[in-house]
Amino acid sequence: MSKMPLAWNKKVGVPPNEETTIVSYSVAANKVVKLDGFIAFGTCPAIFRLYVGSDVKVGYMTSDEDRTAYVVFRTEHVSGATTIAIKVIHYSPAPGPHDYHDFEGTILGA
After folding, report:
1. 81 preceded by cis ω (within 30°)?
2. How many CA atoms lie within 13 A of 26 on its CB side?
3. What's the burial of 36, exposed, middle or buried (CB within 10 Å: 0-12/13-18/19+)?
């Protein structure tokens, strides 16, 4: 069975060394969603984290060879009111004008 997207977004010009939200989904009060994982990628290696509220559910580090994070896990039921988010951080020891990168993410679930 294929996974369905709850939310998708992209961020352009993400600064280095700062965790940045790529996409989020608000679970309404008295609602329950099925969370199955996420897909995220960008123009450089990065660390992607899936949050439910302030809790990190899973993290994934990409590389120059494979810049796609595809994480699927056993369905977790998330009840509202809370926010599900994919956040990214990429590093540069001496940030310059070419260190701002683009990222996209999809939260999987129903």
Report:
1. yes
2. 3
3. buried
Looking at the chain, how many residues does it have?
110
Express each pLDDT in 10-67 by its tens digit: 999 999 999 999 999 999 999 999 999 999 999 999 999 999 999 999 999 999 999 9
Structure tokens at 25: 């989904």
Question: Is 58 within 8 Å of 71 (Cβ atoms)?
Answer: yes
Domain spans of the chain?
A: 5-90+103-109
Q: Can you name the CATH fold of 5-90+103-109?
A: Jelly Rolls (2.60.120)
What does the alpha-carbon distance between residue 56 and residue 26 come to, in Å, rounded to a whole number?
A: 16
* DSSP type of residue 80: B
CA distance 102 to 41: 9
Query: What's the pTM?
Result: 0.93
Q: Can you tell me the distance from the alpha carbon of 23 to that of 41, in angstroms, rounded to the nearest whole number?
A: 12
